[in-house]
């Protein structure tokens, strides 16, 4: 990796405020970042972040999980594509992101680092963009959060084909139907964890998870931390 190349890329992405951009070396250390990434983690300058790992700039599991992702990409060469997860947006505020990480190789094919971004998920919805049946199904789901709700359930309730449903959620929310359903469940869970004294098991049940462990796995995959740790961080 030539520093001038990655430096220019970082400058290019400095104007994208809804995206955290980064390049890392083979040890998972930041080689280049944009301004948004720096600010999101509560740092002031790029030089405060360069040379560090995710676990160095973000405390707890919210820093550990990205570093573990990095190691998998660097070790296996398998890209991480559109991973839906929560990240800090200037602590203590959090935001949903779609994270992508790609391995970088030299001319001999050896993995020498990775490049990626985390793009904010923003649902900008106009009334006429969503069919009435979809809005009705969404309201029904948000009211009950039944564990039976799947992309197939949504398609049937909306009287849409699976392909048309996927096109709709991608266009309006920039998410697959499965990601969209998971986001609603986890959004509700984070609110309940912040605003109520319900036990983690009770939160899991209210959000449509069959058991505590399934909820914890889904929550950690999305947020990078456990429900209990999130409650401590958010208070």
UniProtKB/TrEMBL annotation:
InterPro entries from the UniProt entry: AraC_XylS_family_regulators, Homeodomain-like_sf, HTH_AraC, HTH_AraC-typ_CS, PAS, PAS-like_dom_sf, PAS_4, Tscrpt_reg_AraC-type_HTH
HTH araC/xylS-type domain residues: 135-233
Pfam families: HTH_18, PAS_4
Keyword annotations: DNA-binding, Transcription, Transcription regulation
Domain of life of the organism encoding this protein: Bacteria
Gene Ontology molecular function, alphabetical: DNA-binding transcription factor activity; sequence-specific DNA binding
Name assigned to this protein: AraC family transcriptional regulator
Origin organism lineage: Bacteria, Pseudomonadati, Planctomycetota, Planctomycetia, Pirellulales
């Amino acid at each position: 990796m030539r520093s001038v190349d990655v430096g220019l890329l970082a400058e290019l992405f400095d104007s994208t405020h809804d995206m955290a951009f980064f390049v890392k070396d083979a040890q998972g250390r930041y080689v280049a970042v944009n301004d948004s990434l720096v600010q999101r983690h509560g740092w002031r300058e790029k030089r405060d972040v360069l040379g560090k790992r995710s676990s160095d700039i973000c405390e707890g599991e919210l820093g550990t999980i990205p570093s573990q992702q990095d190691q998998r990409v660097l070790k296996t060469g398998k890209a991480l594509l559109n991973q839906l997860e929560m990240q800090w947006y200037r602590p203590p505020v959090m935001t949903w992101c779609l994270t992508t990480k790609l391995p970088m190789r030299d001319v001999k094919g050896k993995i020498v680092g990775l490049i990626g971004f985390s793009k904010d998920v923003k649902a900008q919805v106009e009334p006429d963009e969503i069919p009435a049946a979809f809005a009705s199904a969404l309201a029904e789901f948000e009211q009950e959060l039944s564990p039976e709700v799947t992309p197939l359930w949504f398609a049937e309730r909306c009287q849409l084909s699976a392909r048309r449903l996927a096109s709709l959620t991608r266009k309006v929310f920039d998410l697959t139907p499965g990601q969209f359903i998971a986001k609603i469940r986890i959004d509700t869970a984070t609110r309940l964890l912040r605003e109520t004294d319900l036990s983690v098991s009770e939160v899991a049940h209210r959000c449509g998870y069959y058991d505590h462990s399934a909820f914890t796995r889904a929550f950690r995959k999305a947020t990078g931390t456990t429900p209990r740790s999130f409650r401590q961080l958010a208070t």
